[in-house]
Amino acid sequence: MTASPLTWLYVPGDRPRVVTKALACGADVVVIDLEDAVAPDRKEYAREATAELLSEPQPVPVHVRVNALDGPLAAADLAAVAALPGVRGLRLPKVTCPAQIIRVAEDTAPADGGAPPLHALLESALGIERAYAIACAHPALRGIAVGEADLRADLGVRDDAGLDWCRSRVVVAARAAGLAPPPQSVHPDIRDLDALAASCVRGRALGFLGRAAIHPRQLPVIEQAYLPTEQEIEEAETIVKAATTDQGAQALPDGRFVDAAVVAAARRTLSLARRNHT
Q1: Three-state secondary structure along 38-70?
Q2: Angle of CA points 130, 132, 138, to nearest 5°
Q3: Per-residue pLDDT tens for 128-157?
Q4: How far, in Å, CA of 174 to CA of 168, rounded?
Q5: pTM score, whole prediction
Q6: Structural domain of residue 240, as residue ranges?
Q7: Looking at the 3D structure of the chain, how many domains does it have?
Q8: How far is it, in rounded angstroms, from Cα 241 to Cα 235?
Q9: Has residue 112 been placed in a domain?
Q10: Are both 25 and 88 inside the same structural domain?
Q11: How far apart are CA 278 and CA 259, in angstroms?
């Protein structure tokens, strides 16, 4: 996996042919969904098909989103897929407390090693309120993200801007816990790529990094929105070039002062830019 994945493509677990195609479409991470994308009468088949497919390593990183942890299906999902060679991460929906993360980490850890990488989806008011505690719950937790469809319903929010406080809270919680910046939630209209691009610009301004997608046509729009512009690259190069390891705040040629945090951000920008040339 790249150091900073930008695209996370969801595909239904009960459609193995679609999953196989998704593995070749250029997403940084493919997420096989056993939860919302699968009808109740297809859950068992989705689990079996996913387990068969992931019994061998895959050419790109694959995560599996299991069913809700407080429901009757999650335990069977985790038992079937957690230890498979083709699984590089588990996405846990509707997380509301740190104890859920700890329990999954303990239940999926093999006797001779640690638990697989876990990613928590916060989809309720309670989950958002406990974002930082969840983000710090266990070393196996590698990321948190907002599940906006369920959160919107839980809060009764009609306008998109009504979720901005929740989004920012999750961004701050991830940073405070030392996790990677969270990816944006999916944009449900796969036809309106202009709206997707505008939404990505907004998400980037809030501190997100990358985005989940539900169709391959969304991938290049997301990547383009989150890759640094030429102007941002030039500015980052100027900052890094001016930086030294033994000084504090310093002045750039244009008179602006930068400190260690600004230099670190510039280096992150250059790291993202390099991924476009590898």
Answers
A1: CCHHHHHHHHHHHHHHCCCCCCCCEEEECCCCC
A2: 105
A3: 999 999 999 999 999 999 999 999 999 999
A4: 10
A5: 0.90
A6: 230-275
A7: 2
A8: 10
A9: yes
A10: yes
A11: 29
